[in-house]
Amino acid sequence: MGAPVATLPPAEATPLAAPRVPAFPQLYEEYFTFVWTSARRLGVPSASIDDAVQEVFVVVHRRLGEFAGRSSLKTWLFAIVRNVAREARRSIRRKSPHDAPGALEDPEALAGSPEDRPDRAAERSSDNRVLHALLDKLDDDKREVFVLAELEGFAAPEIAEAIGMNVNTVYSRLRHAREEFAAAAARYRALVAEKENAR
Questions:
Q1: Measuring CA to CA, how many Å separate 1 from each of 4, 5, 11, 149?
Q2: What is the torsional sign of CA 91, 147, 169, 83?
Q3: Cβ neighbours of 199 (radius 10 Å)
Q4: Diameter of the chain measured on Cα atoms
Q5: Measured between alpha carbons, how far is 176 from 125 in angstroms, rounded to an integer?
């Protein structure tokens, strides 16, 4: 008889390869800007942003070994940022309601800011302060899907994975978020134009 033929184990018996995850220092370096920007866009005020980002990376460091690769690393990170940002906003509202996101910088107020000059209209329209003030007009659920879709470029299935909801709900919330953001932006632009015409 010839030599026995080697056979492969059934596919279902083959263990899945562990996801390739960067070491924590590399992950921190690569994703710091994403975490910082996402936390700020989700309504963590500038005075609290450093603490929030530190908290995100504390959680990441503790849970990095649990990452199973069922979603992208960026999606997994955003889910952590989302939870930390929500808790930060709740804490601010409890301690100091007048300092809650949106309470100090309203886009309508920014349109008439005394330091504005007519030749800075384009700069004002893209200013991060205005962006964050406009985002503050959205409730938490709409804000999250808007940030992921419009500012981070996530596809609807990725958003659904990141925030734990079905894709149809994501599409619905995103549609409403876009409408509300566009309306707030239009009001801001109208006030800027009115201010410039009055000069």
A1: 8, 11, 28, 64
A2: negative
A3: 6
A4: 100
A5: 22
- pLDDT, tens digit, for every residue of 67-117? 888 888 999 999 999 999 999 888 877 776 555 444 434 444 444 443 443
| pTM of model > 0.85 | no
pLDDT, the chain, mean: 79
- The answer to whether the CB of 177 falls within 8 A of the CB of 145 is yes
Q: What is the pLDDT of residue 170?
A: 96
Instruction: Return the pLDDT at 193.
Output: 82
Contact present, 184 and 102 (Cβ < 8 Å): no
The Cα 82–Cα 101 span in angstroms is: 15
CA gap 119, 17 in Å, rounded: 57
Q: Are 196 and 113 in contact (CB under 8 A)?
A: no
Structural domains in the chain plus CATH codes: 20-104 (1.10.1740.10), 106-199 (1.10.10.10)
- Amino acid in position 97: P
Could you give phi then psi for residue 59, rounded to 5 degrees? -65, -45
Token readout for 90 is 């709740």
